[in-house]
Amino acid sequence: MIPLTATSSSLTFKVRVTPRAGRTVVAGERDGALAIRLAAAPVDGAANSALISFLSDLLGVSRRQISIASGQKSRDKVVAVSGVSPDHVTARLVAILPA
Which listed residue, 38, 42, 84, 92, has the most CB atoms within 10 A of its CB? Predict the structure, then answer.
């Protein structure tokens, strides 16, 4: 399972992104991070924007509740989700990750 870290205003977890994939999909878990293949290229923030949009759909929250806390220009990112319980995020991650 992906480890979640609770802060005073949000939950954070690690994401490993592979840009320029054929389509945007969850690729499983890699070294404690959610692995995501993004169709977008890492140009002018397109991949970061696509990641936020994909995660908002995946977690059932609005785009403004998700931000990239660190790793703006890296494949390894820390994503922050605000206004949601750890149980909600855990349930969504369990539902999408293979057993």
Answer: 38
CATH 3.30.1200.10 fits 5-96, yes or no: yes
* Over residues 75-92, mean pLDDT: 96
Degrees, nearest 5: CA angle 31-76-20: 110
Please state the pTM of the whole predicted model. Answer: 0.94
DSSP 8-state secondary structure symbol assigned to residue 86: H
Interacting residues of 66 by C-beta distance below 8 A, sequence separation 6+: 52, 55, 56, 59, 79, 80, 81, 82
Beta bridge partners of 30: 33
